[in-house]
TrEMBL record:
Protein name (record): 4-diphosphocytidyl-2-C-methyl-D-erythritol kinase
Pathway connected to this protein: Isoprenoid biosynthesis; isopentenyl diphosphate biosynthesis via DXP pathway; isopentenyl diphosphate from 1-deoxy-D-xylulose 5-phosphate: step 3/6
UniProt entry tagged with the keyword DNA-binding: no
PANTHER family according to UniProt: 4-DIPHOSPHOCYTIDYL-2-C-METHYL-D-ERYTHRITOL KINASE, CHLOROPLASTIC (PTHR43527:SF2)
Superkingdom: Bacteria
Entry-linked NCBIfam families: ispE, PRK03188.1
Role noted for this protein: Catalyzes the phosphorylation of the position 2 hydroxy group of 4-diphosphocytidyl-2C-methyl-D-erythritol.
Annotated family: Belongs to the GHMP kinase family. IspE subfamily.
Length: 312
């Protein structure tokens, strides 16, 4: 075992499309999930210690569990148990991805911890083994490992890489306080049941990716991507549920549209709102304008696609 520290950089994600099927008997939902990694990063560092410990730094560090419930700690435990090792590492998370924000920050930290522990312990996992461990840890964790862009099927863990023909520039408006992913899925089911459609697998059409959206991504066509995101109101089936639980997000979305965003949507289960912009200067201007509206805690620009988990 090496004594040196190992650091891994992991990206946040936005779901350019999140088509949600009916509730499955196991409590999950089948998805057509178009993941795009964006250039907001956490850095996960592991070093040998006498027991498993988690420390967190960054503006929102106090909102991150610094104990065994942290998904990064569970990642270290999972790899250690599969290889008959003691999970004795200190995991430090330098946090820049919004916490419970719908940007897969916890999943990113788990992917980062897995890659870092694999390097520290010399366990030499193949890409396939790492992806299988990621899928055990959570639906979004495999994508945090691979980054770029991918279509996620099943509960989001079965990935097909997607071509992206150019850079897209985003602004992310961070809210005060997070939203619980299970609570947002439950609210989606409740709203569907309330409409009389039913919320189970038999009542909801199977989720399918939008061909127009996939073409727009592949061609790097900004205008086409913006219109595919806004087709039918939004490409995110969880958006209505996130707005129902946090009505103030509607003000954030409207403020971004008024300030010139080409497309706006709630990121995943929220509450972070994502805005597509023309280019990097437009993203910078929109982030400043949105922050000034006080409809969000803060807003930041980030480019896409971004690489997946990367050893530093
Ligand atoms: O896989 P993960 O642990 O991130 O999922 C958290 C929760 O989100 C699940 O327990 C479930 O309530 C909900 N979920 C879902 N369908 C998915 C992914 C997540 O209902 N495809």
């Amino acid at each position: 075992m090496s004594g040196a520290a190992v650091s891994v950089r992991v990206p946040a994600k936005v779901n350019v499309q999140l088509a949600v099927g009916g509730a499955r008997p196991d409590g999950f939902h089948d998805l057509a999930n178009v993941f795009l990694a964006v250039g907001l990063y956490d850095v996960v560092t592991v070093r040998p210690a006498d027991a498993l410990r988690v420390t967190v730094s960054g503006a929102d560090a106090d909102q991150v569990p610094a104990d065994g419930t942290n998904l990064a700690a569970r990642a270290a435990e999972l790899l250690a148990s599969r290889r008959g090792l003691a999970p004795n590492v200190e995991i430090h998370i330098a946090k820049d991805i919004p916490v419970a924000g719908g940007m897969a920050g916890g999943s990113a930290d788990a992917a980062g911890a897995l890659v870092a522990c694999d390097a520290l312990w010399g366990t030499g996992c193949s890409r396939e083994e790492l992806l299988a461990l990621c899928a055990e840890l959570g639906s979004d964790v495999p994508f945090s490992l691979v980054g770029g862009a991918a279509l996620g099927r099943g509960r989001g863990e079965r990935l097909t890489p997607l071509e992206v023909g150019g850079a897209f520039h985003w602004v992310f408006a961070m809210a005060d306080g997070g939203l619980s992913t299970p609570a947002v899925y439950r609210e989606c089911d409740r709203l569907r049941a309330e409409c009389g459609r039913g919320a189970d697998v038999g009542s909801v059409p199977a989720p399918e990716p939008s061909p127009a959206l996939l073409d727009a991504l592949a061609e790097g066509d900004l205008a086409a991507l913006a219109s595919a995101i806004m087709a039918g109101g939004t490409s995110n089936d969880l958006q209505a549920a996130a707005l129902s639980l946090r009505p103030s997000l509607a003000d954030t979305l409207v403020a971004g549209e008024k300030a010139g965003a080409m497309a706006s949507l709630v990121s995943g289960s929220g509450p972070t709102c994502a805005f597509l912009t023309r280019d990097e200067p437009a993203a910078k201007a929109l982030a400043e304008a949105l922050t000034a509206t006080r409809t969000c805690r803060t807003a930041r620009g980030a480019p896409s696609p971004a690489p997946g988990a990367t050893l530093l």
